[in-house]
């Protein structure tokens, strides 16, 4: 099926379209097998291309800057990081009715990390802390300030105040509305980041981690990459970790109380946003966000 721009600017993307885009713009890979990766997340349609490549096409306008951003920055970041990250090899151009840049990257082997496999592992928690320490230690002067996605990383928590309070009211029958409000108020009142801006991943949750043979192997999806307050990346402590591994993570990362509180605020806000928008129609999201909100209330 070829792409068609709909009222909500979401093109329809099928194998025939991807085949034409690849074959016309990257002739060296023409004819390689295409296999749809499903589920692939809310931002991109992803096809495996042959054995060694993947093709990622944005589903919506909020993700259209990712291909060029990753091509520019990930090769510079990769040598400094202790886990593998995507290796971009090309950016495709709009064509055949598809409206946005799209990416070809090296295929990363692994399965999406799960709470069952890694949630109680202090070792995995320390690995993730070391990854963030390394990421935050490399911030060139011309790095992009803030994240790419609207209303995600790089913006003050206060920008999410109204939406989060509405979500607290909507979810109050499922979770403790009083506890959520108290946590949100505390996060908004916490002192802000007063040091030099550092890199953040911007969407650092379980779905963007890969594991092989029971160990973390890669971090993916850098669409929210930017520099600023790294508190947003503490989301991983509540999407993946148990209380025990979370303590190991915090200790290895050396997080101060104010940053930790802002991180809990980010995790609450993003968890509620996903819960109120998707839980009723997506059982997987319902389970993930229920855990996220429950863990962030534990602290």
Map the helices and strands.
Layout: H1 15-25, E1 34-37, E2 44-49, E3 53-58, H2 66-77, E4 88-92, E5 102-106, E6 111-112, H3 115-118, H4 122-136, H5 161-171, H6 177-189, E7 198-200, E8 209-212, E9 215-219, E10 226-228, H7 236-239, H8 243-253, H9 257-278, H10 283-298
Antiparallel strand pairs: 1-2, 2-3, 3-5, 4-5, 6-8, 7-10, 8-9
Helix pairs in contact: 4-8, 5-6, 5-9, 6-9, 9-10
Q: Please name the CATH topology of the largest domain.
A: Aminoglycoside 3'-phosphotransferase, Chain: A, domain 2
Total helical elements: 10
User: So what's the overall shape?
Assistant: globular
Kindly estimate the percentage of residues that lie in beta strands according to DSSP. 5-15%
Which class of the largest domain in CATH terms?
Alpha Beta
Distance between the termini: 47 Å
Count of individual domains = 2
- Compute the average pLDDT: 92
Query: What is the strand arrangement across the widest sheet?
Result: 1-2-3-5-4
Query: Any guess at the CATH architecture of the largest domain?
Result: Alpha-Beta Complex
The overall strand count is: 10
CATH superfamily of the largest domain: Aminoglycoside phosphotransferase (APH), C-terminal lobe
Describe the model.
By secondary structure, the chain is of the alpha+beta class. The chain folds into 2 domains: 15-106, Phosphorylase Kinase, domain 1; 111-298, Alpha-Beta Complex (Aminoglycoside 3'-phosphotransferase, Chain: A, domain 2). The chain has 10 helices and 10 strands. The strands form 3 sheets. The chain has a 5-stranded antiparallel beta sheet, with helices on both faces. It has a 3-stranded antiparallel beta sheet with strand order 6-8-9, with no helix packed on it. It has a two-stranded antiparallel sheet with strand order 7-10. It is globular. It starts with 14 loop residues before the first helix and ends with a helix. The model is unreliable at 1-7 (pLDDT under 50).
